[in-house]
Amino acid sequence: MAERGQLPPPAKRLCCRPGYGSGCRPGQRAGGAGGPGSGALCAGPSSAAAAAALGLLPLGKTQSPESLLDIAARKVAEKWPFQRVEERFERIPEPVQRRIVYWSFPRSEREICMYSSFNTGAEDSAVAPAAPGGSTASTASTATADTAADENRLPFRRGIALLDGGCVDNVLQVGFHLSGTVTEPAMQSEPETVCNVAISFDRCKITSVTCSCGNKDIFYCAHVVALSLYRIRKPDQVKLHLPISETLFQMNRDQLQKFVQYLITVHHTEVLPTAQKLADEILSQNSEINQVHGAPDPTAGASIDDENCWHLDEEQVQEQVKLFLSQGGYHGSGKQLNLLFAKVREMLKMRDSNGARMLTLITEQFMADPRLSLWRQQGTAMTDKYRQLWDELGALWMCIVLNPHCKVEQKASWLKQLKKWNSVDVCPWEDGNHGNELPNLTNALPQGSNANQDSSNRPHRTVFTRAIEACDLHWQDSHLQHIISSDLYTNYCYHDDTENSLFDSHGWPLWHEHVPTACARVDALRSHGYPREALRLAIAIVNTLRRQQQKQLEMFRAQKKELLHKGVTSVTNLEGWVGHPLDPIGTLFSSLMEACRVDDESFHGFSDFTENMGQCKSLEYQHLPAHKFLEEGESYLTLAVEVALIGLGQQRIMPDGLYAQEKVCRNEEQLISKLQEIELDDTLVKIFRKQAVFLLEAGPYSGLGEIIHRESVPMHTFAKYLFTSLLPHDAELAYKTALRAMRLLVLESTAPSGDMSRPHHIASVVPNRYPRWFTLSHIESQQCELASTMLTAAKGDVRRLETVLESIQKNIHSSSHIFKLAQDAFKIATLMDSLPDITLLKVSLELGLQVMRMTLSTLNWRRREMVRWLVTCATEVGVYALDSIMQSWFTLFTPTEATSIVATTVMSNSTIVRLHLDCHQQEKLAGSARTLALQCAMKDPQNCALSALTLCEKDHIAFETAYQIVLDAATTGMSYTQLFTIARYMEHRGYPMRAYKLATLAMAHLNLSYNQDTHPAINDVLWACALSHSLGKNELAAIIPLVVKSVKCATVLSDILRRCTLTTPGMVGLHGRRNSGKLMSLDKAPLRQLLDATIGAYINTTHSRLTHISPRHYSEFIEFLSKARETFLMAHDGHIQFTQFIDNLKQIYKGKKKLMMLVRERFG
């Protein structure tokens, strides 16, 4: 952590002989038992007493009483800089100096651990950042092998290993300076190394460290740790000398010269140039060194002006933070930054001034992050994890400025710095991307004529705004001081029952303040190492909230009829406590849970942390003896649970902006997950019952009240937790709560808009904006989860299932979520280990039908899946359900779905087998399917005709009807592709004449141009001609004019022509009889017409191609002419026609010399 491998910084203290100028220290030559320059062991007069003071002796072991000298020296060593001691007393006996020097070294390993590892063991071993505004709340976990390995790599752990391995040697304490060597054992790839370590200390704090290992890090290296722990654990083995200046004062001139010469001789290569330079300056009368009295002594301790704080390598802190930020959240950098924040909290809890110092360094690097200006220019939001880091930064500054014992000048300095950061353009806003319209810390409600001023004129609230506002808060209020300082502060004669009374009806103290601000005080007390004070204030706040809750309930009951009649949705809280930047509910919950945690060192004192460090304990919570200000039977645990329920049930408006909305959801889920770790007993169940009843009856004060504001944060996630918790104990209340929470008014156009006449109405703060709920999909999924949980629990209960179904149909507006619920109900109803629950199956079917109706006229990529599932569900319900959906198909399905999926599935063998249908039932179902098919074919013949024909095959009348529908639609509404498909089906089914009829109708819709020689309809045309040819000369003669009219592509026509000349028409008749007729003549109709059309198509195509031909297509064109010649030669005068055709080409296109040359070469 220090400037390892460098020389220690020069001492600030200047030491000199007595009587030498005004800078002399009086009484330096005081005699002592040690004699001049003599060393002594650190333990002093009573090693046992010293060991006992260090906590090294076990309890119950006999100890000698500590001497008055040691008691006094220890107190002086803790509080006074040594220079003040020297100036205060004329003579300081050498034994007294030795005891002060002895006691000035840190005596606790806790700080050493704090400055050499991310975790001291006193905190939760999973060091994670607290939710904004709250310290880290422990979560039960078991240490893994990876965690143990990481712990062992920490400098503190490695330092202990080096100490235990006997690697520390040559330990020497000279005044306030400790030195020694630490041997790093040889590893597989590295030889043994010896590190020289030097430590300076003052008033029980290490003020600087140097080590030759050369490693650079924020924390002390393992070698510094090993030497420090050696001094703490083995003080009697450390040789102690007074500051070196004391020894030098006792030498005469010859001794001093001998001392200097020996020193230069031993280290001549290192110090000779420096020694000569100093000698020259001393011998120079006007040199700077001769203008001051005395000389620096690095072992003489601190001067009066020196700040007393632990050594913190500021440069390394800045470099590490800069590195983590530059990695943009990759390589675990976010975790490292969170660990640094946790380290700041740890320092604050130890009341170490470096906490604020370290946070200042971190903040400066955050503000210098180049991504801030980039994101601002691009208008893009920062990543969620990065945004959370900024939140923690703001929350930490809030804790720092609320330090109850910070000095006025220190707070003024922080305020100046915070305002400087706050004024920077790129400083992140408190709510992510939007200006915050919420009140500030000291005003919970808007006041005066400016209460509703245009939000666009207000300055944006940044992550530092709350800390800046908190600088105006103080701790001087006498009522507040009494609350936090005493468990006995009561007033049983107090009868003021007003809203802001100082005591409740029990005489217990209350604290009326803007709730997030009051909770910020609790967090500040906890963060600065005042857990008992934080607990007292937390209890007062919770008692105040409970009293307010009761008052609100009484107020609503008194005005219920009037308020409900007006549809009032107003609440007194303009900002939600869950998801708030200061996390007030999380703070209260964590404070109370810490107080009831079994074996909690951080609350009841610190012990054995070196043994426990890194060991993850499973957390147990118990009802500890009741506090004075709790009801009978209550405990910190019940109080924590109750305040969490109060906060989660508060009616609150959904904030603006994606980040703020995500934070509401995230904090709610975090708080619920902590509640789920607590095992409910009878006492806690009573709390749940009490709060559930209140939330249902508290009207506009509750998120579960009868009427809520349209943009109130939904209660689905919270209600699901309440439902599962209450269900085993009070099912009626559980269902009542969950059903009330099912609503999602923001999606309902008829939701109440609010009573604008009330001064504190939400609508006055959120003026008629169009709701932009960025988390709506998540909210709807939570609503769906709540409904699914109720469906699962209601299995077998007809009345409850009907109620839940009604709630789903009324409140859920997303087809995909209703479909999920339908599927969930189906799975629950058809579990393999039990008979199907027919009521739940009907619920599933009813939900499926609702999905069908909702998605019938809208696009939904899962529609086919939904239709198939519905048929499966109806099949499970029974044959009457299948018949019902086919009877009312037009309200549920498109004609295509009804025929291709529904009717087809119903008619399948698998459905018949699954339903165990007899012949009568089969026929009835088939009749419904055929009726459906015909209705669909009438409505959408293009897409349903073929399916209708297929479904009606076994019923002659229905089949004929379907065929007639096709014929009626063929001339107007059907495409040639659809007609060809049905025609081929007809041929396949043994109706060639009907196939021929449909083929001729299809040909009438077809149009193939000259260049469409790869058109997909070509195969259909060839098939139609082949079908006509097979039926006979008359059919072929009838279709050829249609072909000539529709097809202009020469290659297709020539292909048809060749096929027609290969065999006799009607070669295979309708009944398989072979015709013995002759081949058709090309000189007579209908083939003459086809031949002429083909030759004409070749001529037209040739001219079209020559218009835009390029040289690379010349060879292809010559091949095309060759095919054309084959067709020309099929006519009796074809040779003459082709020759004239070529001659015409040569004349018309004589400009294309190269092409015409190729034509002449091939065709003459």
UniProtKB/TrEMBL annotation:
One annotated GO molecular function: zinc ion binding
Pfam family, one: ZSWIM4-8_C
UniProt xrefs under InterPro entries: Znf_SWIM, ZSWIM4-8_C
Keywords annotated in UniProt: Metal-binding, Zinc, Zinc-finger
Domain SWIM-type: 195-232
Ranges for region Disordered: 126-147
GO CC terms: Cul2-RING ubiquitin ligase complex
Protein's recorded name: Zinc finger SWIM-type containing 6
Source organism of the structure: Sphenodon punctatus (Tuatara)
